[in-house]
Amino acid sequence: MAEVVVVSQQVPAKVVELEAEMVVEGEVEAEKEHEPKPKTVEKCSSYKEESNFLSDLKENEKKALSELKAKLEEAILGNNLFEKEEKKESEKSSNESEEKEKPISEEKESEKPTEEEAKQEAKPKSEGDDKEEATQEGEEEKKPEEKSIEGAKAAEEGAEEKKPDVDVKEKCVQVDKDISIWGVPLLPSKGAEGTDVVLLKFLRAREFKVNEAFEMLKKTLQWRKEFKVDSILDEDLGAADLSSVAYMNGVDREGHPVCYNIYGVFDDEKLYQKTFGTEEKCERFLRWRFQLMEKGIQKLDLKPAGVSSMLQINDLKNSPGPSKKELRIATKKAVGLLQDNYPEFVARNIFINVPFWYYALNALLSPFLTQRTKSKFLFARPAKVTETLLKYIPAEEIPVQYGGFKRENDSEFSIEDAEASELTVKGGSTETVEILAPEVGTTLLWDLTVLGWEVNYKEEFIPADEGSYTIIIQKGKKMGSHEGPIRNSFRNNEPGKVVLTIENGSSKKKRILYRYKAKNSATLCKELYQIRQLRLALHNI
C-alpha cells in the first residue's frame, strides 16, 4: 500500500507536462491547417547516430579515446583486466592452504606414543638393549651430516631442475591478447576497425570520463564472463512461449534493427506465472532477454560507417499495472543490466500505448537511469502511435497492428516495391487516389491507412469508355481507428482506373498513407516462372 501512495504523489507533475504537450500539439496543428499538402511522409530529422569516425570527434573526445585505449592496452598486456577474478583465485588458494595445514597437525597427533609404547619405555633395559641403542644413536648422529652433504649436492645439481618450474609458472600466466567483446578485438594495437566504435560506446555512456568508462568496461567483461554471455546464443532456453513478448522486426529509416517489446501478453495470468512464478523462472526470463539482445547485436555493423545501435519499441497496451510486483522487479533488473552492460546500443526507446499509471511508474524508475538514457525515451499515447512511429520507421516496415503496411509472410508486396506516399485531407474536404489500369487483365493491389481515421471511404473502378458502367469495389462507409490499414485488389476487364475516395467530415485534417502496384498477365507469368525456378533450385540442393 505504501508504494501506491508514493506513486500517486508523483502523478500530478507528469499530468501537467502531458496536458502542456497536448496544448502545444493542438496549437501546432491549428497553425499547420493552412500549409500546403506534404508530398512525403514526415520524418524526424534530428534522429541520427553520433559519428564514430575519428575525424568527426571533438578534441576532448579524441583525447579521451586515446587515453582509454592506452589504459586498455596496458591492462590487457599486464594481464590485470579481470582484477576480481584474481582476487577470487587468491582467496581460494589461501583457503586451500588452510585446509592443507589441518592434516599436518593431525599427523603430529598420530605420532604421539600409545599407552602400550609408554609402558615398554618404562621397563628396565638390559645391557644388550643399551648397546643396540648406542649403535642406533651413533648412526643417527651421522645421518644429519650425510643429509647436509646430500642436500648441498642436491642444491648444486638440482638448481637447473628448479628453473623449469619457474618457467611453467610463467607459462601459466600467459597474456590473452585475443580478448574481445561482440566479436570485436579489444587490444588497441591490433588495429581492428570496430575497437574504436565499441570504446566510444563506453565513453559516451560515461560522458567521456576515461576512468569511469574503463571501470564500466571491466565490469561488463566480468559480468559477461560470469554470466557466460558469449555462449548464450547457442543455448536452448525452452522459451518458445516468450516469442510474442519481444522480437526483432524490420528496420527504421536509418537502418537500425527494430525490437518490439510487448508487455500486454503478461496480462495472461497463466503466462505471467510461467514467466515470473519463481525466482528461477525470473532468471530464465532475464537470460532469454539478454539472448535476444545479443541476437539484435548480430544484426549490427560495429564499424565507423556501420549501423551500431537499434530502435526499441515498448508496447504497453493491456500491460499489467504496478500491482504485479514480480514484473516490476524483473523489468527494473533487466533495465539496469542492459544499461550497464550494453551502453549506447539503443538509439531510441519509444513507449507506445502508454497508460496513465505508467508516467507515475516511470517517475519511480527514473532515478536509476542516467540522463543520457532518459534523453532517448519517447512516449506516445494510443491516439498518436502510428504518427509517432512514422517519424522513425517507414510505413512499409511498421506492422499492421500499429497502422503500418507490414504483414507477416506477405506474398503481395515486397521490400523492392514502391515506398508509401502521403496525402493530406483538410477538414470538411474530399481527396481521391487514382490507380491507372490502361491494359486489360491487369491486377491492381493497394494499401491505405488514415492517421486519426473517422473518415468516409469508398473504392470504385471507372472504365475509360464513357458508355461502360462504374463498378463498385467497396461501398462508401464510415471508418474508425479500429478498422486498421486497408488492403484490397481488383482485376480489370477493360481499360480504366481505380479511384479511392476519402471524405473528411471532421474539422481536423487527416493524413493518408497509401501505396499500390499493378500486375499484368506478363508480370504474373514472369513471377510464376521465377517461383518455379526457385523451387527447382531448392529441390536440387
Automatic annotation (TrEMBL):
<dbReference type="Pfam" id="PF03765">
    <property type="entry name" value="CRAL_TRIO_N"/>
</dbReference>
<keyword id="KW-0813">Transport</keyword>
<keyword id="KW-0131">Cell cycle</keyword>
<dbReference type="GO" id="GO:0005737">
    <property type="term" value="C:cytoplasm"/>
</dbReference>
<dbReference type="InterPro" id="IPR056794">
    <property type="entry name" value="PATL1-6_C_GOLD"/>
</dbReference>
<feature type="domain" description="CRAL-TRIO">
    <location>
        <begin position="235"/>
        <end position="410"/>
    </location>
</feature>
<feature type="compositionally biased region" description="Acidic residues">
    <location>
        <begin position="129"/>
        <end position="139"/>
    </location>
</feature>
<feature type="region of interest" description="Disordered">
    <location>
        <begin position="74"/>
        <end position="167"/>
    </location>
</feature>
<dbReference type="Pfam" id="PF00650">
    <property type="entry name" value="CRAL_TRIO"/>
</dbReference>
<keyword id="KW-0446">Lipid-binding</keyword>
<keyword id="KW-0963">Cytoplasm</keyword>
<dbReference type="InterPro" id="IPR001251">
    <property type="entry name" value="CRAL-TRIO_dom"/>
</dbReference>
<protein>
    <recommendedName>
        <fullName>Patellin-4</fullName>
    </recommendedName>
</protein>
<feature type="compositionally biased region" description="Basic and acidic residues">
    <location>
        <begin position="29"/>
        <end position="53"/>
    </location>
</feature>
<dbReference type="InterPro" id="IPR011074">
    <property type="entry name" value="CRAL/TRIO_N_dom"/>
</dbReference>
<feature type="compositionally biased region" description="Basic and acidic residues">
    <location>
        <begin position="140"/>
        <end position="167"/>
    </location>
</feature>
<keyword id="KW-0132">Cell division</keyword>
<dbReference type="InterPro" id="IPR009038">
    <property type="entry name" value="GOLD_dom"/>
</dbReference>
<feature type="compositionally biased region" description="Basic and acidic residues">
    <location>
        <begin position="82"/>
        <end position="128"/>
    </location>
</feature>
<dbReference type="InterPro" id="IPR036273">
    <property type="entry name" value="CRAL/TRIO_N_dom_sf"/>
</dbReference>
<dbReference type="GO" id="GO:0008289">
    <property type="term" value="F:lipid binding"/>
</dbReference>
<dbReference type="GO" id="GO:0051301">
    <property type="term" value="P:cell division"/>
</dbReference>
<comment type="similarity">
    <text>Belongs to the patellin family.</text>
</comment>
<dbReference type="InterPro" id="IPR036865">
    <property type="entry name" value="CRAL-TRIO_dom_sf"/>
</dbReference>
<dbReference type="GO" id="GO:0016020">
    <property type="term" value="C:membrane"/>
</dbReference>
<keyword id="KW-0472">Membrane</keyword>
<dbReference type="InterPro" id="IPR044834">
    <property type="entry name" value="PATL"/>
</dbReference>
<feature type="region of interest" description="Disordered">
    <location>
        <begin position="27"/>
        <end position="53"/>
    </location>
</feature>
<dbReference type="Pfam" id="PF25099">
    <property type="entry name" value="GOLD_PATL1_C"/>
</dbReference>
<feature type="domain" description="GOLD">
    <location>
        <begin position="411"/>
        <end position="518"/>
    </location>
</feature>
